[in-house]
C-alpha cells in the first residue's frame, strides 16, 4: 500500500499559541549545573459533571452531517460541514483563551469549583480558560476496530497501569468527552495497548525486535485510514496513542514519515530518542497498586519530616549506579537503599522526607515523581533528556529541584536550601497534587483530565481544512 505521507491537507501549527501556555520545557532541564529551585495547594472539587449521553453506536453509512455537534448558534449551523463546525469551535476556544490572558480572568457558563492560580502554573489564566473550553467542547472518537486482548484493553495496575486506566476511561462509556459520532470528534484515539502487546507477544520471551509491534500499529492505521476519511485529512495530526511501556516510542521508528504528525503520549519521553515536546506528550508513570488508583497520600507537616533526602529502588540504569556509589546506605541524612530494611515502609519513608530523589532508571520515566508528589515530598529530578508531564502548563521549576548526574556526590547541598524556600516549594507540591491523582470516573483537573488537556492543546495548535 502506498504511504500516507503525501496526502493533501493542511496542518499549520499555531506555535505561538502553544507558546503562550508554555515557553519551554527543554530549557528547564539539564542546562544549569546548579541545583535549580523551583516548586503548592488545594483540595479536590466536587464537580457534579454535566452528564452527557453515552455514545451511541455510530453508523458510517450516511446521515453524517445530521450528527453534528449541537451548537449554541443555531442559525448558520446547517450550512457548515462537520469539520467547519469543529474548527469554528476551536477558533472560539482560542479566542476565549487569549481573552482570559488579556483580562487575567475567565469566562464560564457554570460555576467554577477550582480556579488555578499561583506560580506553579506557567500561565494560570490561559490554563484555566483552556480547561474550561476543553470541558465544554472536547470530543474524542475511539476507533472501534479490532478485538481484545491487544486492543480495547490494557493493564490497570502496576507501573504501566496508567495505560489501561486511560483506555478504560475512554472506552467505558462514562466519559462525556467521547463523541457520539466520529464527525463530532476533535481527535481520534488508537486503542492499542503496547503493554498488553508486549505481554502477549513477547511472553515467554523470544528474541525481541520491535518489528511486530510496528506492524500492528501501522496496520491498524492503514485499516482506519482506508475506511474513514479522518487520518488522511490531517495526516494523523489529530490522532493519538497512549502508552506507558518502555517500548512504545518504537512504534514510529521504521516508518517515521507515517508518524510525522501523530501524537504519541508516552511515559518514555526521552528527547534524545525522538520525543518531540511540541507534538508528543509526556505521560506520568504511576505505580498503581491492585484495588487502588495510586500511591497513598501522606501529608506530614514539613517540620515532622526528619529525613533530608530519600530513595529506595533497584540499581537499574547509570544514574542509579552513580547514586549508589556515593550514597548507598552510608548516610543518615541522604538515605539511599537498594533494599529497604523490612521494618521500614516505602511510602511512609517518603512522607517522612523533605526531598525525594527521583533518578531515572532504564528509561527516563520514574513512578517516584508521582509518589513524591503524593507524599508531599519535594521531588529531586536526576535525569537527562526527559520532559516532565504537563510541562506545557506546570512550571516544574517552582516545585521540584533538578540535579545533574555530576552533582550526585554533592546531594548534601540540599541542606543549604533555606527553610522559607523549602516551605514554599513543599506547599506548591501539595498544590499540584490534584493534577497527579487518578479518579474513575475522571474529574476536572485530575491526572486523566490533565492528559486529555495535553491532547486538547496539541489539537488547538492545528487547524484542518475541509
Ligand atoms: C459530591 O456531591 C454529591 C451530590 O451533592 C454527593 O452525593 C457526594 O457525596 C459529594 N462527594 C464528595 C466527595 O463530597
Ligand atoms: C438517513 O436519514 C433518513 C431520513 O431521516 C432515513 O430515512 C435514513 O434511514 C437514514 N439513513 C441512515 C443510513 O441512517
Ligand atoms: C472574573 O470573572 C468572573 C466570572 O466571569 C467574575 O465573576 C469576576 O467578577 C471576575 N473578576 C474580576 C476581577 O474581573
Ligand atoms: C487515504 O490515503 C491512502 C493512501 O493514499 C489511501 O490508500 C486510502 O484509500 C485513503 N483513505 C480514504 C478514506 O480515502
Ligand atoms: C535517553 O536516550 C539516550 C539516547 O538514546 C540514552 O543514552 C539515555 O540513556 C536515555 N535516557 C534514559 C534515562 O534512558
UniProtKB/TrEMBL annotation:
Query: What residues does the Exostosin GT47 domain cover?
Result: 120-412
Biased region (Polar residues) positions are 39-52, 62-78
For this protein, the parts annotated as crossing the membrane are: 6-29
Membrane-related topology note: Single-pass type II membrane protein
Query: Where is region (Disordered) located?
Result: 39-78
What would you give as a GO molecular function for this chain, any one?
A: glycosyltransferase activity
Q: Which Pfam families match?
A: Exostosin_GT47
One GO term describing the cellular component: Golgi membrane
Q: Which UniProt keywords apply?
A: Glycosyltransferase, Golgi apparatus, Membrane, Signal-anchor, Transferase, Transmembrane, Transmembrane helix
InterPro entries registered for this protein in UniProt: Exostosin (IPR004263), Exostosin_GT47 (IPR040911)
Cellular localisation? Golgi apparatus membrane
Regarding protein family, the annotation reads:
Belongs to the glycosyltransferase 47 family.
User: What is the name of the protein in this document?
Assistant: Exostosin GT47 domain-containing protein
Amino acid at each position: 500500500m502506498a504511504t500516507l505521507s503525501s496526502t493533501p491537507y493542511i496542518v499549520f501549527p499555531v506555535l505561538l499559541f502553544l507558546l503562550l501556555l508554555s515557553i519551554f520545557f527543554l530549557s528547564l532541564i539539564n542546562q544549569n549545573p546548579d541545583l535549580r529551585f523551583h516548586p503548592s495547594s488545594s483540595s479536590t472539587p466536587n464537580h457534579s459533571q454535566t452528564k452527557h449521553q453515552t455514545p451511541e453506536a455510530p453508523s458510517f453509512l450516511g446521515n453524517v452531517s445530521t450528527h453534528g455537534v449541537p451548537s449554541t448558534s443555531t442559525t448558520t449551523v446547517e450550512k457548515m460541514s462537520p469539520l467547519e463546525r469543529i474548527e469554528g469551535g476551536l477558533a472560539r476556544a482560542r479566542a476565549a483563551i487569549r481573552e482570559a490572558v488579556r483580562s487575567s480572568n475567565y469566562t464560564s457558563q457554570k460555576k467554577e469549583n477550582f480556579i488555578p492560580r499561583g506560580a506553579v502554573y506557567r500561565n494560570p489564566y490561559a490554563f484555566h480558560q483552556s480547561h474550561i473550553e476543553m470541558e465544554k467542547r472536547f470530543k474524542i472518537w475511539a476507533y472501534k476496530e479490532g478485538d481484545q486482548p491487544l486492543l480495547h484493553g490494557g493493564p490497570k495496575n502496576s507501573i504501566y497501569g496508567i495505560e489501561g486506566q486511560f483506555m478504560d476511561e475512554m472506552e467505558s462509556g462514562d466519559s462525556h468527552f467521547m463523541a457520539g459520532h466520529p464527525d463530532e470528534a476533535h481527535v481520534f484515539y488508537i486503542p492499542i495497548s503496547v503493554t498488553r502487546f508486549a505481554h502477549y507477544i513477547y511472553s515467554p520471551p523470544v528474541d525481541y525486535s520491535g518489528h511486530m509491534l510496528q506492524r500492528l500499529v501501522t496496520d491498524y492505521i492503514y485499516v482506519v485510514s482506508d475506511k474513514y476519511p479522518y487520518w488522511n485529512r490531517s495526516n494523523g495530526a489529530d490522532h493519538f496513542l497512549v502508552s506507558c511501556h518502555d517500548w512504545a516510542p518504537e512504534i514510529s521508528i521504521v516508518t517515521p514519515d507515517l508518524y510525522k504528525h501523530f501524537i504519541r503520549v508516552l511515559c518514555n519521553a526521552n528527547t534524545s530518542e525522538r520525543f518531540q515536546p511540541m507534538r508528543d506528550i509526556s505521560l506520568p508513570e504511576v505505580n498503581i497498586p491492585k484495588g487502588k488508583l495510586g500511591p497513598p497520600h501522606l501529608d506530614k507537616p514539613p517540620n515532622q519530616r526528619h529525613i533530608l533526602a530519600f530513595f529506595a529502588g533497584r540499581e537499574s540504569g547509570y544514574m542509579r549506579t552513580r547514586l549508589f556509589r556515593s550514597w548507598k546506605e552510608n548516610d543518615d541524612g541522604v538515605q539511599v537503599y537498594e533494599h529497604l530494611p523490612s521494618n521500614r515502609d516505602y511510602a511512609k519513608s517518603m512522607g517522612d522526607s523533605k526531598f525525594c530523589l527521583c533518578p531515572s532508571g532504564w528509561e527516563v520515566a520514574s513512578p517516584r515523581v508521582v509518589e513524591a508528589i503524593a507524599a508531599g515530598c519535594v521531588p529531586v529530578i536526576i535525569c537527562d533528556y526527559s520532559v516532565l508531564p504537563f510541562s506545557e502548563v506546570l512550571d516544574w521549576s517552582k516545585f521540584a529541584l533538578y540535579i545533574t548526574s555530576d552533582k550526585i556526590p554533592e546531594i548534601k547541598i540540599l541542606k543549604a536550601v533555606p527553610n522559607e524556600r523549602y516551605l514554599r516549594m513543599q506547599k506548591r507540591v501539595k498544590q499540584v497534587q490534584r493534577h497527579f491523582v487518578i479518579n474513575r470516573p475522571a474529574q476536572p483537573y485530575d491526572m486523566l483530565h490533565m492528559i486529555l488537556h495535553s491532547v486538547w492543546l496539541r489539537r488547538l495548535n492545528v487547524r484542518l481544512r475541509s
